[in-house]
Write a structure and sequence with these properties.
Length: 227
């Protein structure tokens, strides 16, 4: 087993299952799951200084600078439950964040490992464009994988199901473009470092998780009993 704190970074395009796999691994191993989306929502909801700073950029229609995201993650990693490592979902997202992240780990002698979920673009389009969300309760369905009992109607409260702007084909294509533009250098960075694991993400969440646990056990990053 690796005595140094281990930080697993989940890489993959939107819809590849990064959040699902991180949550499953959290449930299995107990390691904290740190999602930048959750961090932003928390800071905005609580109106923390970092949240107010981020809100100022968002209100002007500007991108939140890397420095704000980095500070949010650094604050979260400083909490006691992340002393032995964490599962990172959505961070680092570009090379500037990688440099900052490695600087955070250096004093702790932390080790980073990147898990790259491989899912073809056509499968990403299928997964995301088929999603429908209830306007009333926010429940999420999928036209193919998890359809409602009545087309366009939520099973829980009868609310109207709609397609979020983020899930429309033209938006998904733009999200994929941004992902490849920003993340391709990260894949190269972790490959050169010998810290990249590539994993087929097209199976069921349970099958992908089983393969992930097998790989981690082979590398002696988790015990075979826990895998």
């Amino acid at each position: 087993m690796n005595p140094a704190p281990l930080f697993l970074i989940f890489l993959g395009p939107p819809g590849s299952g990064k959040g699902t796999q991180a949550r499953l691994l959290h449930d299995r191993l107990g390691w904290p799951h740190i999602s930048t989306g959750d961090l932003f929502r928390y800071h905005l909801r609580q109106k923390t200084p970092l949240g107010l700073l981020a809100q100022g950029y968002m209100d002007k229609g500007e991108l939140v600078p890397d420095a704000v995201t980095i500070d949010m993650v650094a604050e979260r990693l400083a909490q006691p439950d992340a002393a032995c490592g964490a599962l990172l979902d959505g961070f680092p997202r570009n090379l500037a964040q990688v440099v900052a992240f490695e600087a955070m780990l250096a004093p702790r002698q932390g080790v980073s490992l990147a898990l790259h979920l491989l899912v073809p673009d056509e499968e990403i389009m299928r997964r995301l464009t088929g999603r429908r969300t209830c306007r009333q309760c926010g429940a999420v369905y999928h036209l193919e994988f998890n359809p409602p009992l009545r087309p366009g109607i939520c099973d829980s409260d009868g609310g109207e199901l709609y397609q979020r702007d983020d899930d429309k084909p033209e938006t998904v294509q733009k999200r994929l473009y941004v992902y490849y533009k920003q993340t391709a250098p990260l894949i190269g960075y972790y490959f050169a470092k010998g810290a990249l694991i590539e994993l087929d993400g097209t199976g069921t969440p349970e099958a992908v998780q089983a393969e992930l646990l097998h790989i981690l056990a082979e590398r002696r990053l988790v015990s075979t009993a826990r895998a």
